[in-house]
Write a structure and sequence with these properties.
Elements lengths: L44 H21 L1 H4 L1 H8 L3 H28 L2 H19 L7 H29 L2 H33 L9 H15 L9 H9 L4 H4 L11 H9 L2 H35 L13 H28 L6 H23 L16 H17 L2 H14 L5 H42 L1
């Protein structure tokens, strides 16, 4: 007879926190004693269909993230926002996303995940559609709508990967999760392309917010028809494995001593003494800072550079030229896919000769990107083309949760707003002109280059401690 606790409830009924159940991507626990694997046959065709539906929804998820940056100039002009207020749009979105994610992780471990996913898709799609009808006098409602969209997308981002991890065994799980996550850069780039394309085709930027809700409606229908109401949950040990992509073999061997259960505060204190964790978290924060700022501001920065060069005329009354967003979106898609594949392959090869390959690759990438960013900023006023090529597991679950919190809180949650505030301050001290509008953004972006250098240094410091900390973790 099959264990009923291995399945989800058919409705929103509370599930008791049994040790053998997982506690989500951000709060998984490994139970005391040997873990019990639930045998499964090879993935059925329906499993692949479910994964495909979730990948499609993930695509829409990240398209909604980057619709605003794709038509930032139009939005800024329509609501008459300063650079600081404009940057606050993405900050509100990321903060709401960051704060809502742990809540949905908790709910996803205790209630029916399909219902939560469906409600999330319906909610964020409805809010996105509603935001396209907001009058220019009610700009604060537009800010509120972006925060609500962040809450809705958090419900999907925290739960969907756990369903994919539960559907596939280890051999297929990593591959399917990799495919799921590849839709992050693809969706991000398509967000720029969709926003700019719709604004150009219709002459009205509001239509950019009316396409993804239709796509979300299709995703909701596919979710209802193809995703099973109950998905077999794996043990906590399996879930920890599925999220990290690695196996702690010593912990799975019979007779091996397992450490006593610790409190969350003890876990945090221990992690604070783990220098490879600390430095890598700071490196990820620096990376999030840079990518968050660039993702928000680059299309607008390129437009200002073109105005200074005389390539385009200032956008005063008519719908603004969105060609920069189209190009930047295409580059984001291409370089995102290429970067994931190249980084994974480089790490795979270098691990054979150097156990520090992962942090060293991250450090090198951050150093190179910081240099390229600085050079591109300096030549943007003279040659706009170069700017387009500026590109960028124990206490496992607690560690992942803390890294997500810190990297968002100190990274991409604040960087768009900070860049906007610096730009405002520079403009306030100089005469109002298109030249200083460009220079203020250019000088603000220099901060990202320096943060990138610090990020590379943090990853380099990680390489000094990673082998020792890895050996220490294997003993426990």
């Amino acid at each position: 007879m099959q264990n009923p606790d291995a399945h989800e409830n058919t409705g929103l009924q509370f599930q008791p926190p049994l040790e053998e159940q997982n506690y989500g991507a951000t709060a998984a626990r490994v139970r005391q004693g040997p873990s019990v694997s639930v045998p499964r046959n090879s993935p059925a065709k329906r499993d692949y269909l479910v994964a495909a539906v979730l990948c499609y929804a993930n695509l829409i998820n990240f398209m909604d993230w980057f619709i605003v940056p794709g038509i930032l100039l139009d939005i800024q002009k329509y609501f008459e926002l300063s650079d600081g207020d404009t940057g606050l749009l993405q900050t509100v979105f990321i903060l709401c996303y960051m704060l809502a994610a742990p809540l949905f992780g908790y709910l996803g471990d205790r209630y029916n995940r399909k219902i939560i996913l469906g409600a999330g898709i319906l909610f964020w799609s409805g809010v996105t559609l509603g935001s396209s009808f907001i009058n220019e006098l009610y700009y604060w409602i537009f800010f509120l709508s972006r925060g609500l969209v962040g809450i809705g997308t958090a419900s999907f981002s925290t739960i969907a990967p756990t369903i994919i991890a539960d559907l596939f065994e280890e051999g297929k799980r990593t591959t399917m999760l990799s495919i799921f996550y590849i839709f992050i850069p693809v969706g991000s780039g398509l967000g720029y392309v969709l926003a700019a394309g719709m604004a150009e085709a219709t002459g009205d930027w509001h239509w950019a917010f009316r396409v993804t809700p239709c796509m979300g409606g299709l995703a909701l229908v596919l979710l209802i028809l193809l995703v099973p109401h109950r998905t077999q949950r794996r043990t906590a040990a399996h879930r920890a494995l599925s999220i990290s992509g690695t196996i702690r073999e010593a912990a799975e061997k019979p007779g091996v001593h397992r450490t006593a259960k610790t409190t969350w505060c003890q876990d945090v204190i221990s992690l604070a003494k783990n220098w490879s964790f600390v430095w890598s978290s700071l490196g990820l924060t620096a990376m999030a800072f840079v990518t968050g700022a660039l993702g928000m501001w680059v299309p607008l920065f390129l437009y200002r550079a073109q105005v200074v060069q005389g390539i385009v005329s200032p956008c005063l009354q008519e719908s603004c030229n969105s060609s920069n967003s189209l190009i930047f979106g295409g580059i984001t898609i291409g370089t995102g896919i290429l970067g994931v594949i190249a980084g994974a392959e480089a790490a795979r090869r270098l691990r054979k000769i150097n156990n520090k390959a992962d942090p060293l690759i991250c450090a090198a990438s951050m150093f190179v990107s910081a240099l390229c960013l600085y050079i591109a900023l300096m030549v943007a006023q003279m040659n706009i083309l170069s700017t387009f090529y500026v590109v960028t597991p124990r206490r496992q679950s607690t560690a992942i949760a803390l890294q997500i919190l810190v990297s968002h809180l100190l990274g991409d949650a604040g960087s768009p707003y900070l860049i906007g505030i610096i730009s405002n301050a520079i403009q306030a001290r100089n005469a109002h002109s298109f030249q200083w509008s460009f220079w203020s953004m250019q000088y603000s972006f220099i901060l990202c280059a320096f943060v990138g250098v610090f990020g590379g240094g943090f990853f380099l410091l990680t390489s000094f401690y990673i082998e020792e900390d890895r050996k220490e973790a294997e003993k426990r």
